[in-house]
């Protein structure tokens, strides 16, 4: 019988086409072409007949062969009796081992079932068309006191062929059909044809005599897992070569999956003899000599690819885990070789355990040292020379260093997740026969990609009953959200708001895909900004230890390529490949970036795409790819200058660009404020931790409980309720209004649409934290509060007021004058000496004492918030008075009104005087800030006290250029939808005249024929959709504006009947149809109830018809126009009564003669002004001495919109024209 390969010998490896692993010193002797092919990697029991069974322990001999010529064939074969015995024992173990049924799941097979653990797996191999048997090493340890386990672990590489033979025997015994289909040897009688496929079958051969596809035949393999000891990469030494071991590391690079030639079939180029099943041991290996006794060929071989067997091959590079790197050391790396069903099991960024054996491979990169040329040479008696000598490639021989052209690699037969890492996903745990096959191969569905009850049930199936009960108890506990927050990062004192944000980041929102295929991220990005020593880095370290798939990096030490992806050249193949950066390694996890503000701006730009689209695009070195980076960013940054300045914006405090700031969902500003009570509690907490360590904190939930709960909660896919949607819109509007509040409501950063998306994600995360399937208004409110708390309001310097400058100067002059008089009297006792006045200037200057400097004026200081509060009160009063009377507000009246408003806070006369003085100073500063304009007499107020001495009153008005409505928050946020029949005029009106009143997103229009009720209903539905399903105000201004019949006709002309119909359908039927279509979107449900709340006094929805004063006063030939406008008056009266149950008010505005040509397209093109449109008759016919403007109608409409107690009324806006006639 043939001898199995011997143990690996590092010193004998030679370079070949596939030099990824070492060669072995021994090799199975090539078999004759007349010998049937047996199972791979060792002698497998033969067959009595090629279609028969597999008798146990029968080995096909080499009978019938002629005596070979003396030489290499006469070398006796050595039988490894120890390995033979171990193979027999291992086969018995696999065949007879049974496990307690309660300790593992039942096999997922409807075929043959058995209580024999590994026999059930063999049946599973057949059912699922797999080729790897998974052996639990703990089973071997329990078998015969672990003798078999110790032998396998101590010399794994030596015994592996014999264990594979045992596996082939069992598969052939229990699943013969499956074995015949994939590993059945066929008849390979030597051919003499010249064809390359010299071992092709005859047509009458049995179909069972060959496999369906020789190139993809199953190569059965054994995978061990659950070894007691998991070694570190740094601990591996040459003493571990050939031994069974497990190593743990983080995958940093994976190669593409390539086919590897495993069993080769060669054809002798001399005699066409076929040599099958030549095992390829890490390199391309040809037969040493043709087995044909009449042929001595040693070199002329051709590979028969169709009759050779290939398996999948992949190389993975791992790096030792960050927690295992000694201080000051570089991380060690190692190449791991995966084959068969193990390929693509490890992804970049994952922490995995690889089980296999350590091997030695040639270091190909050392063969490419510049300046030397390495080539293989045969032994020869000729003198050896060359620049590298005849001893092969060597190191620094002069320094005693021998061959350095080899390195260690790891040949893995099993890949499992590193469950020793906290929070590692348990859905790939190996449980039961079916679990060993399916989950270990990664064929179980990723729970993150399955939504609903199925994903939750799949996860619960991986937990023990005790863990399920504990999880159920946590879900049912009240206020679970805050309980989770209190249990998160217990070693860090306080910072509850930050912990809330981190919990929601761990939960994440719901990822969505638009109908166009655009992905909307659900992950949250958080940035912690704060003073030094405020636990920023501790939060990052905690999250990295809490989650399995996290990457911790520093912004200053990270480049753009290190964060995203780099294109590198493979040192062996020379091809360009992509090496994953930190964001790719943290895919489906969290990337923690410390010192984010120290990162170069150019490097920050590189992660823009990854933060929002969660992809990384590469276009380098001929590689164009878009890679996934579905990660959350947790960043920490220090303020500029070391301390956070609350008197400036967040943008000015940190070194970040505006685009990257907008991509963060939450900013947490952690300040180191001096607080005696807080400092005491913090000091006690830190001292207790140093004294008692873990016993100092006792959170309600342990880390394992939190990990299980978060893993379960992430499987929920909550959706918004209708009420939650309404609250979401309101909260976003509140954030935007605060952001647009001018100098009063300045926030730390601008609120954009991305903050609305952040609000959505945060609300979904809160729902997940509560393990519910719906996002309720309470969850939206919690998310809004969190987002609001993360927006640090900008603090302003305290406002200082000086005493009145004129009064202070007057006092100083008086004091200086008195001092001068005293000095003069002292020098001239006689006084009135006129001669003194005639002295020279120089003498006088020397005798006059220097003027005493004016003393510093006292200052009054108040907080900026108090200043804004007083200023707002005063400005609002001035604004209201100015709307009533354009004269403004007198200063004394304004101060008196303010004191009356503050009456409850003023207890003494001193308080009254102090508050009056403060209010006056606020008024003067407001004047200096160009907000108020003081007026005295006929013009602007004079500086100084002269005007006051003349007794003139000061009036205050608002500066014309100051946006007072925006400052006071009085601007209304209307959204407008307009119907018209003239598209060109409508577009001009909206884009020119209405642009200054409305944002482009708040204004829309549509072409509508008011004589078509069906089109009206369609356009109203479109408008309601634009207005978020609610219409508050309807203004029926459409109609035929021409008051007289066309072409000077009278009603006697029969052609006017068509015009009459047009007037009725447009001016009367149109408003009725539009109102009818809008009522469903305007009505207030439950409007008929008793008044029991202040909100019942709100104006509510209203309909305003635009009629005409021609309903009361007509000129000749206006029958059509005047009748329809009078009809609108009756329509308004009736609708006001009919729509009372819907709480819709109905009123009418009757314009007079309104000049509108200056606001038309033609008027703008000609530069027409409103004043030029007024003629002499306009002044004569109107008591107001002018015609009307469009704004006059708008003011009346606005009044009716806000007049909640007015309905069924007509307002005539005609400048008094109807009264004059």
Automatic annotation (TrEMBL):
Coiled coil: none annotated. Residues 31-46, 848-859 have a biased composition (Low complexity). It comes from the Eukaryota. The keyword Cell cycle applies. This is DNA replication licensing factor MCM6. Residues 1-58, 182-212, 813-863, 1158-1189 are annotated as: Disordered. Residues 1158-1167, 1179-1189 have a biased composition (Basic and acidic residues). The keyword Zinc does not apply. GO terms for cellular component: DNA replication preinitiation complex; MCM complex; MCM core complex; nuclear pre-replicative complex; nuclear replication fork. Residues 480-686 form the MCM C-terminal AAA(+) ATPase domain. It comes from Friedmanniomyces endolithicus. Residues 185-201 have a biased composition (Polar residues). Keywords: ATP-binding, Cell cycle, DNA replication, DNA-binding, Helicase, Hydrolase, NADP, Nucleotide-binding, Nucleus. Its EC number is 3.6.4.12.
